[in-house]
Amino acid sequence: MVNLKQTCAKLLGVRVPLPRKLYIALAVAGFALCLLAYGWLSNRPGNNPTFVPPFQKLFAAAQTIFSGKDIWIDIQASFARVTAGFLLAAVLGVPFGLLIGSFRPAEALTQPIFEFLRYLPVPSLIPLIMIFLGIGESAKVALIFVGTFFQITLMVADEVRRVPHELVQAAQTLGARREEIVSLVLLRGALPGIFDALRLCNGWAWTYVVVAELVAATEGLGFRTLRFYRFIQTPNIFVYLIVLGAIGLILDLLFRAFNARMFRWADATRR
Fold it and tell me: Residue 208's domain is classified under what CATH number?
């Protein structure tokens, strides 16, 4: 009993690392608890299955959906839009963030503007985007780009500023030029945090694709979810939401695995 209490007290310590097997077991237990809670809620007396469908209806809806081709077309369409918008935002946002985080004049000139723009609700920009780009694929990609570009830029700038100034001073003492300090010290020192920021922004991109597909789309996970809503097909909505969550979780795990493999030297608390 004493050993059990000591073990529990140790595991509950602040930021104490957990054994991998225990971490996985707790993660699985968290999902299991959510499923149990949903099962109890969907089967309790007085529940309206139209709003909270029981598991048997969800399984039947999933079987129907995955036996057809629409789900695969929707996943492909949404994935292409997210990838295009997110990659464009990353390709432009990382250099901008590096510039803002490295040089004070660039920070003073652009960061207040970026801070202002990132607080504009993305759905409110839909009319302007439609005016300039129409209702085609470019408008959907642009919406995802706008929703993630400013976030990526500012988060990258913050990561660059977190690189210890002592490293910059050491590089200057050794005779490094300005370009070398930026590329070899600041950028490399911030890379683990930059990839972590990209992981978070990729999750936001998947939320914006649902918004983008609510306007003049003919395929996509967001488009299909809205269509199910119009016909009150709640089980189908739940299935598509689970698909969205599963895609996001898989991508998040891939980002984490890449970060852990590429930046073994970084502090594990940053990954």
Answer: 1.10.3720.10
Residue 123 CB partners (closer than 8 Å, separation 6+): 211
Q: How much is the mean pLDDT over the chain?
A: 88
At 112, give phi and psi (nearest 5°): -60, -35
What's the predicted TM-score (pTM) here?
Answer: 0.86
Residue 88 lies in a domain: yes
Instruction: Give residue 256's domain range.
Output: 55-270
Nearest of 128, 190, 194, 132 to residue 162 by alpha carbon: 190
What percentage of residues in the chain have a pLDDT greater than 90?
A: 52
**C-alpha atoms less than 13 angstroms from C-alpha of 39 in its C-beta half-sphere:** 9
Residue 235 CA to residue 64 CA, distance in Å, equals 11
Measured at the alpha carbon of residue 266, what is the angle toward residues 22 and 159, in degrees to the nearest 5?
115
49-82 in b/e form (b: 16+ CB < 10 A) is: eeeebeeebbeebbeebeeeeebeebbebbbebb
Distance between CA atoms of residues 209 and 136, nearest Å: 14
Provide the number of structural domains found in the chain. Answer: 1
